[in-house]
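Attaching the record inline, Q. Sequence:
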Amino acid sequence: MPTAFPKDSVGLVTPQTAHFADPLALVCGRSLADYQLVYETYGTLNATASNAVLICHALSGHHHAAGYHSLDERKPGWWDSCIGPGKPIDTDKFFVVSLNNLGGCNGSTGPASLNPATGKVFGADFPVLTVEDWVHSQARLADLLGIRQWAAVVGGSLGGMQALQWAISYPERIRHCLCIASAPKLSAQNIAFNEVARQAILTDPEFHGGHFQEQGVIPKRGLMLARMVGHITYLSDDAMGEKFGRGLKSEKLNYDFHSVEFQVESYLRYQGEEFSGRFDANTYLLMTKALDYFDPAAAHGDDLATTLAGVKADFCVMSFTTDWRFSPARSREIVDALLAAKKNVSYLEIDAPQGHDAFLIPIPRYLQAFGGYMKRIEV
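Structure, as predicted:
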């Protein structure tokens, strides 16, 4: 157990819960009568509330982005390498807000929450959500915190899509948009991977049409397979080769279909096992559908430059060379559209072997560029 935290850590943090009683109209045509969002804050909001930064999480992320919940917590928040004193998102300068999205399974209202209309868990009855819905709910959280304008909205992957949507939906409420390892919409291949993951869950005998909690079970097998498929796409071929190669768990092959023989097999099964014990299956379905549905240019004749014509934020777009899930070409689509719309944009393509997960890893050049851009933000 550590007796002290690193000097560049935000230290002990306590999640907070915001309750909203006004109905939230959703893109799907339904609404939530009331809901709650769980969030954490790091740093101090200044007198003019001009130094606030919003962190948007990716598919399986949550509100715990930095610091520790207790002295015996082994690992800090999922983006601790980027948030803290002297780090790229410097909490000596910025007031940072990180939340668990609506529909999540880490405290915010979602499929595992009680439906006040029935007194039972929502399960499959929870409405389908979009990135736009999340941004509207986040705007209400900003109102509650007294933040009229974000100094920056920052996110990687699905989080980057939220940052982009913020700039489109609330152009007056965001000064800088940092879109990392993201895309203006999913490719057919990405939608296909998401569908395979969803089918793994939907066809699990323990799914029970999404009402598995009423049966006292979880679709563990489906969740494990979904996570294994997803995890393969987060790593590059080079990263998997360097980490595992064709290494064996034992000295000889067993020549059967059931043994865990290769180290990469063991790794994927561990990832699936761990994930199935902490993540809600209905939330996974919701998050992947939100990814699939994101396509802000669809409302403007598929013209992304026209879609971005009204944004007022300055942009920082970053991508990673070996990311094949959200390739640099997808980031350049955003950059090209912003330039066509005559907006301010900085772009960096980082040479990194780690694949899509690189945005979570403290790669020196990445942190240097990230921190360099954040230092330019006036508060």
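Residues 190-288 form a domain with the Rna Polymerase Sigma Factor; Chain: A fold (CATH 1.10.1740.110). The chain has two domains: 16-185+296-376, 190-288.

More tomorrow.
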